[in-house]
Design brief:
Elements (H helix, E strand, L loop, with lengths): L22 H6 L3 H11 L10 H10 L10 H25 L2 E8 L5 H9 L7 E4 L6 H4 L5 H4 L7 E6 L8 H4 L5 H20 L2 E9 L2 H13 L9 H5 L4 H15 L6 E5 L3 H14 L8 H4 L7 E3 L9 H5 L9
Parallel strand pairs: 1-3, 1-4, 2-3, 4-5
Antiparallel strand pairs: 5-6
Helix pairs in contact: 4-13, 5-13
């Protein structure tokens, strides 16, 4: 498929003084995004350069990224601040109505999961918003039920918990790198839909986000981590070992979606080649799914269909999925 040249209204500007945005500047620009959206709405569809629904579907299947530019910092900071104000409204509503939120952030290495969590929680009250990023299991934890250490971190009423990687480690890195036995992997796939169904029926609002990045972009981010002393800690030996296992991770991802994308707990895929767009798109998806007091619908808007999709667009329509959903060590021939 030929890649459509989609250029956003916020095409990347040359770096400079405009990249530093004060609160006063952001406040002065409050109405400009709305004006741009309204102007776009008045533009005849024939004049808009937008891909068709079929092109979007194929792009999600292939992993292709449809934007040709990146969002500039000024636009990003302005929109982020207003979406974060909406997140605060959600947090207050959750406390008043005793809601419980679990947000899982999964994806390939260097896909932007941690950065998105950071922007979600940047202005939330830390007393009722937690980030869970567990290290490898201890000897004691290895002897427990696999899900046990993750369940111990579930929220109480009025709390939001953000998992920076979750129990889905078993579906991805453990399967690909051989850190679990085939029967452990298959049992995980059997148990996970039941577990998530119980969580949802117990009143937990569960969101599962998969951050998708192209191979070229992932390599660029890895190289940046190698040379930047402030980012070097992000590049683990497992990350380096997984560089040559792109296809294996793709297969594991599709098998995971095949088994665990359910009506009770669906997966949402976020394309994250442009980290700024991905963060905003994820926030908008989360906020647009909720009906909370004083919601500003013009700020929240709708998730960008070029960036956000359900998992069924990602599972290729081919016969290999039943075979790939098995652990590699259990295949014949």
């Amino acid at each position: 498929m030929k890649k459509p040249a989609i250029k956003g209204e916020d095409a990347a500007a040359e770096p400079g003084a405009d990249d530093v945005v004060s609160e006063e500047t952001a406040a002065a620009d409050v109405g400009r995004d709305f004006e741009a959206q309204e102007a776009l709405a008045k533009t005849p569809r024939a004049q808009r350069v937008q891909p068709s629904a079929e092109e979007v579907r194929r792009a999600f299947e292939s992993g292709e990224y449809l934007y040709s530019d990146k969002m500039n910092r000024r636009t990003y900071e302005r929109q982020k601040a207003r979406l974060q104000a909406e997140l605060l409204k959600v947090q207050l509503w959750a406390q008043e109505t005793e809601q419980k939120f679990v947000l899982l952030f999964e994806g390939r290495d260097a896909a932007g999961k941690g950065g998105t969590i950071k922007r979600f929680t940047e202005h939330l009250n830390p007393r009722s918003a937690r980030v869970v990023a567990l290290n490898k299991p201890t000897w004691e934890e290895k002897g427990q039920w696999y899900f046990q250490r993750y369940i111990n971190e579930l929220p109480t009423v009025g709390e939001m918990v953000f998992y920076d990687r979750s129990w889905y480690n078993r579906a991805g890195v453990e399967r690909v790198m051989g850190f679990c036995e085939p029967n452990e992997y298959l049992e995980f796939m059997r148990q996970t839909p039941d577990l998530e169904r119980m969580l949802v029926r117990a009143g937990i609002r569960l969101y599962k986000y998969w951050f998708s990045v192209t191979r070229d972009e992932q390599l660029l981010r890895f190289k940046s981590r190698e040379t930047d002393p402030l980012k070097r800690w992000k590049l683990s030996p497992i990350d380096k070992a997984g560089l040559d296992k792109w296809d294996e991770y793709t297969e594991a991802k599709e098998a995971m979606f095949f088994y665990t994308d359910t009506a009770d707990a669906p997966w949402t895929v976020v394309k994250s080649n442009d980290k700024k767009r991905a963060r905003l798109a994820c926030m908008r998806h989360f906020l647009s799914s909720l009906d909370y007091p004083d919601k500003d619908h013009r700020v929240v808007g709708h998730p960008d269909p070029l960036l956000v999709s359900s998992a069924h667009h990602v599972i290729h329509k081919s016969e290999h999925i039943l075979g790939s959903s098995m652990h590699p060590d259990q295949r014949r021939g």
